[in-house]
From TrEMBL, chains A, B, C, D:
Protein name in UniProt: DUF1211 domain-containing protein
Transmembrane segments: 9-27, 33-55, 76-95, 107-127, 148-178
Naturally occurring in which organism (per UniProt): Paenibacillus artemisiicola
Primary subcellular site in the record, as a coarse category: membrane
Domain of life (superkingdom): Bacteria
Length: 191, 191, 191, 191
């Protein structure tokens, strides 16, 4: 029952995060397409973040299904993940407003990196509740391990070219958009 | 179970969308009715959007009841629908602030158009989970097919007269406010 | 099942309404108690609205428990109620910012009046699903009938003295803060 | 059933409180780390509040599990708690913006104090539903009794040094971050 409440609370926070980002789109100063296009980088920024929060929402759901027993550690690891994700609207707005300047883009990658590392911690803590064979089937998710490396690289490359950073970040999204069949199979319910 | 979570998440996002639109009503500068009436176009704009989001909430509920098996495709089509709807507060504010200028009104119609098309995709993906006779009874919903056409027309006519655009958009709302008896009958639970 | 979803959606909207009102408290310009006290009227305004939305949340819960069969009419009457309540943060902010000037206070009473009338409509529609004896035991709630009259009076008296308006509005709150024993008894579950 | 709805409503309000605090992070004026570091005190402020709201969310969950029978008193005590917590985003923003000036820091402690006292009232009201032995095992929670004293001290010391206030407030957080084993044991579900 408690995992349900953690799931409901997390869903609430994720739904708010994904929606309040839109509050950063200030009404354009003119009433023509030109005025709207000035918002371009903010909109691109928003699309990125919408997709990432969407991916987290989906993966988080899979992950929490594997919880056998709630405890304080899982709750605080989950809050740590939500903390980093709660900063996404801020970094999204900064990156968009700066038209993808180096530092805001690096910060964006850093927040995604910290989120991914927190997710990995939560993932490991939940795997501990299962025996080795289940963990072997599920746990060594290369995606969970690889994502932080890509985000780390995106932080570093932001000062060379934010196009490279953006490309690395998009790669992670593409990687996750393919659903993780192994978890679905192991859970035996098709997801 | 997963459809429930998607439903809860969607409800959360829709509840936030419908409520944060009110944050666009800045406190009037005077303390009299005249100062309030200056907000008129924003309030009309808000009423429109409140009704559309309300309609989506209701239809979405009917639609998700028909889901037999959740999968990644449905989840992402649902997120695509929520993405377009999440832009409604922005376009509502712009249209209201511009007092129904042509381009903001056209954009408003476009966002409703993209939402309607996404809804149609979700609708088709869910119908695929049912056999032909059920799909024949339910699926060829003329409303789902007709709405995008009306929205498309409203985008085009915004540059002739935003009154025509508004009229077309209102027509869609009127069309949907009549509950879809066929789905209710087919589901056999009166809705 | 559908009443559950309407309840969840309404709870979501009410939770957001009650919370975003706080966003109207701009950070004071100084760092002392004097700067904080300048927010006084806004805080009083907020306390009022917090209590009213709290009362609606509680009564709404009692009311929805009496729903036997969901239909489109109930859904739209419920959305009408949420529409008026969604304007509460705006009128709260205006009333507070104006330090209880006549027109903002009258508007505040009007929005509460329209909310109360919508609630009455929803109440009547739900009572129709029950037989006459149940309706006789429950339905002629004098509170539901009396509240709109008090709000109406508060609108009118705002131009004489907003203290009288405030007093009338407080009377309604006091009236509702005493829980309605009859519904609890009739439902037989103590509430 | 009603406790469930109160829980869901409270979760919604807490999720919104924790997330809208981020809206106080205005986009920095420059695009470099220096501009970001100017937000430092706001971010520290936010981390504090995120942890406190997280602690309340967790404790609240334990507490509501002990409710045997919902009534109006519990509902209004719960709303009183939510009222004080709803002011946390405001005091967080003021404290951060003032870079921990004495009065904003004192107010921050006061809001936490009022929240803690409200929590204590709710705690006592729920314990009354249990017999003396259960109350003896659970009810005399030294944490619930001690927290208000620490907050009270933090208010007073803010005018000597906000470092002392901060230290006292951190002590309360540390105290709560250790999960209350007694409740978990008494409930016998480890959760």
């Amino acid at each position: 029952m408690k995992a349900n409440r953690m799931e409901a609370f997390s869903d609430g926070v994720l739904a708010i995060i994904i929606t309040i980002m839109v509050l950063e789109f200030k009404v354009p100063e003119g009433h023509n397409w030109h005025a709207l296009f000035a918002l371009g980088p903010k909109i691109v920024s928003y699309i990125f973040s919408f997709v990432y929060v969407g991916i987290y929402w989906n993966n988080h759901h899979h992950l929490l299904h594997m919880v056998r027993k709630m405890n304080g550690q899982l709750m605080w690891l989950n809050l740590l993940l939500l903390f980093w994700l709660s900063l996404v609207p801020f970094t999204t707005a900064w990156m968009g407003e700066s038209r993808f300047a180096a530092t805001p883009t690096a910060l964006y990658g850093m927040i995604l990196l910290f989120s991914a590392v927190s997710y990995r911690f939560l993932h490991l803590a939940i795997l501990k509740q299962h025996d080795a064979s289940f963990a072997a089937a599920i746990g060594n998710g290369w995606k969970v391990k690889l994502s932080p490396l890509f985000y780390l690289a995106s932080v570093g490359t932001a000062y060379i070219s934010t196009w490279i950073s953006g490309f690395l970040i998009v790669l992670v999204a593409v990687m996750w958009l393919v659903p993780d069949k192994r978890i679905e199979h192991a859970m035996g319910d098709g997801g």
